[in-house]
């Protein structure tokens, strides 16, 4: 029995056994032979119960032969190996899936963080535009009637507590400068009633006081203002009280304090017109009363070299009008005090981080070895007080270049575009070192500063507002007089609203509600002294005043001639010559 088991386990039989030949066979041969012999072995006679050996048929019938065992062993270990490999692959796949889940979670977290940062950015932008402000209650209401408006006490229909609270509130006490500013606004409404005051030393002293108050306000403003729409933008005024009155009658009819939005003036308030002092007094008065509503920029005529050029502008020079009104010494003092305030005016403004506003145009880039700021950064870096023309001693070359370009430059004409340098700048036809800027300079400026449009003044035209350079540059001119643009010239302004830019022009047919009427009917009943006073104040056109005076001289001359003819004195020719001489004695424009 042991021998049979041993033979079964170790696959060895007696030499006479047919299976002895299986030892040297390949596993495949042995398996085939075993399958061929299995039916024959199963039919062999069974051993007797007393036999100690095990029949070969019993072992082979179970398939456990030396050859079969070896095959089963190999099959078992092969299957185990395959299962191990499959398990390893499954673990690798599971690990990859876990890693993918982790990375997906990280991507989701980063996406959420980006969304949060974008929300915070939008919130910050919104917050920067809409500030939380304190709004004290006014106890006075504005009563509007045909004569204007007046302040009356607010009526209450609430509880006794509400009434007590309102009675406890007091209106802020106005400063001396604010009280003077109120007077300036009244003078502006009807200057004919204040002719004596406008030529007095009191007006000179009060204008100086208001200039000092405006200077204190301007010292706190940056060189480039940042404003939020809606904003009304005005160009050159040039001492034209009539067109300024048109805007007051139609844009801020109820007053700037009762009109929504802000008001931006781009400079050139003096020279060329005959009411420079009145325009400055009115605008400075508004600045004192409503410093957050009105913003004043600087133009090239807010410099001493220009507004003191009497030889060129004659009686339309700001300096001439100051001296003519108050005397040489007092007039020069008023002129200098106004220029001290002009030195502090900002040079530029940006509306809604999109629209760049300036008097002349964009400045040339500042090139330094260590750092090259953008044009807006260069403007912001200017001192709070600059004279420009002539400069103060501390004004460096780059400061003079930036400031001069801001108040003097113009867009280049189409003919000049080909003569500009690589940066898009070139010499201006104005001369005197002024520059002009072309499409390349505009492209570079708008891209570098993330802006879309430029609104400027500085150039006279009859359209009020004109658009050029691919609808990216607006030129606004707010006076229709004194620039040889013809009788059909318009005065314009621009409204930068929340969602669009709109143009507002004064038609040449507009019947101004201004109190002084510039017609012969309005002046024919005035004495010569009254006519001269109104002419000096700009209340009557210079040409109209001269024509009326000439008409009167001609009438007087005719009377003299009639007398001479009746008396035959022969003095008529001398009188006519004198009249002709007076007629041609006119200040230069």
Structural class, by secondary structure, is alpha/beta
Morphology call: globular
Helix content: 40-55%
Report the end-to-end length measured between terminal Cα atoms: 146 Å
The largest sheet is: 6 strands, mixed
Low-pLDDT residue spans: 12-24, 40-63, 515-521, 565-589
Number of helices: 21
Q: Would you report the number of β strands?
A: 16
What fraction of the residues are assigned to beta strands by DSSP?
Answer: 5-15%
Q: What is the CA-atom radius of gyration, in angstroms?
A: 49 Å
| Nearest-integer average pLDDT | 81
Strand order of the largest sheet: 3-7-8-12-14-13
What secondary-structure arrangement, pairings included, does this model have?
Elements: H1 2-10, H2 27-42, H3 56-61, H4 66-129, E1 140-145, E2 148-153, H5 160-168, H6 176-189, H7 195-198, H8 201-218, E3 224-227, E4 231-234, H9 241-250, E5 262-265, H10 276-289, E6 294-296, H11 304-307, H12 310-313, H13 318-326, H14 328-342, E7 348-351, E8 355-358, H15 375-380, H16 397-408, E9 410-411, E10 425-427, E11 435-437, H17 439-448, E12 453-456, E13 465-468, E14 473-476, E15 491-496, E16 501-506, H18 520-523, H19 528-536, H20 542-567, H21 572-584
Parallel strand pairs: 3-7, 4-5, 5-6, 8-12, 9-11, 12-14
Antiparallel strand pairs: 1-2, 4-15, 7-8, 10-11, 13-14, 15-16
Helix pairs in contact: 2-4, 6-8, 6-10, 8-10, 8-14, 13-14, 20-21
């Amino acid at each position: 029995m042991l021998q049979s088991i041993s033979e079964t386990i170790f696959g060895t039989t007696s030499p006479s056994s047919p299976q002895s030949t299986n030892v040297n066979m390949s596993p495949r041969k042995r398996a085939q032979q075993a399958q061929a012999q299995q039916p024959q072995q199963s039919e062999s006679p069974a051993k007797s119960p007393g036999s100690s050996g095990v029949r070969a048929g019993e072992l082979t019938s179970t398939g456990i032969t030396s050859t079969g065992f070896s095959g089963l062993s190999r099959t078992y270990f092969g299957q185990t190996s395959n299962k191990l490999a499959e398990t390893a692959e499954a673990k690798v796949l599971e690990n990859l899936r876990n890693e993918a889940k982790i990375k997906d979670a990280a991507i989701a977290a980063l996406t959420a963080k980006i969304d949060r940062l974008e929300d915070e950015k939008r919130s910050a932008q919104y917050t920067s535009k809409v500030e939380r402000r304190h709004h004290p209650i006014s106890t006075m209401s504005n009563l509007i009637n045909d004569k204007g408006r007046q302040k009356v006490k607010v009526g209450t229909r609430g509880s006794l507590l509400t009434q007590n609270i309102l009675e406890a509130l007091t209106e802020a006490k106005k400063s001396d400068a604010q009280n003077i500013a109120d007077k300036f606004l009244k003078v502006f409404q009807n200057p004919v009633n204040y002719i004596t005051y406008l030529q007095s030393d009191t007006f000179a002293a009060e204008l100086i006081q208001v200039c000092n108050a405006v200077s204190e306000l301007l010292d706190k403003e940056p060189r480039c203002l940042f404003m939020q729409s809606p904003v009304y933008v005005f160009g050159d005024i040039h001492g034209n009280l009539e067109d300024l009155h048109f805007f007051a009658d139609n844009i801020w009819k109820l007053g700037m304090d009762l009109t929504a939005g802000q008001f931006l003036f781009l400079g050139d308030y003096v020279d060329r017109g005959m009411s420079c002092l009145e325009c400055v007094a009115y605008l400075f008065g508004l600045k004192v009363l409503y410093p957050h509503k009105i913003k004043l920029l600087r133009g090239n005529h807010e410099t001493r070299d220009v507004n003191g050029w009497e030889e060129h502008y004659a009686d339309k020079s700001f300096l001439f009008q100051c001296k003519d009104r108050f005397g040489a010494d007092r007039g020069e003092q008023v002129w200098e005090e106004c220029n001290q305030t002009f030195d502090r005016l900002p040079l530029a403004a940006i509306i809604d981080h999109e629209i760049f506003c300036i008097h002349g145009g964009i400045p040339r880039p500042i090139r330094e070895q260590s750092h090259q700021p953008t044009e807006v950064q260069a403007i912001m870096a200017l001192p709070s007080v600059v004279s420009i023309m002539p400069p103060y001693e501390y004004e460096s070359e780059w400061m003079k270049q930036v400031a001069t370009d801001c108040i003097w430059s113009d867009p280049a004409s189409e003919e000049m575009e080909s003569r500009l340098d690589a940066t898009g700048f070139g010499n201006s036809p104005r001369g005197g070192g002024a520059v002009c800027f072309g499409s390349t300079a505009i492209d570079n400026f708008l891209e570098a500063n993330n802006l879309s449009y430029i609104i400027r003044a500085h150039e006279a035209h009859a359209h009020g507002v004109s658009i050029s350079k691919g609808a990216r540059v607006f030129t606004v001119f707010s006076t229709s007089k004194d620039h040889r643009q013809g009788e059909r010239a318009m005065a314009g302004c621009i409204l930068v609203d929340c969602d669009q830019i709109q143009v507002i022009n004064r038609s040449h047919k507009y019947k101004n509600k201004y109190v002084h009427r510039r017609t012969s009917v309005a002046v024919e009943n005035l004495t010569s002294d009254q006519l001269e006073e109104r002419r000096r104040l700009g209340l009557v056109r210079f040409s109209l005043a001269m024509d009326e005076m000439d008409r009167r001289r001609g009438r007087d001359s005719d009377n003299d001639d009639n007398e001479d003819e009746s008396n035959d004195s022969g003095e008529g020719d001398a009188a006519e010559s004198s009249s002709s001489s007076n007629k041609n004695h006119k200040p230069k424009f």
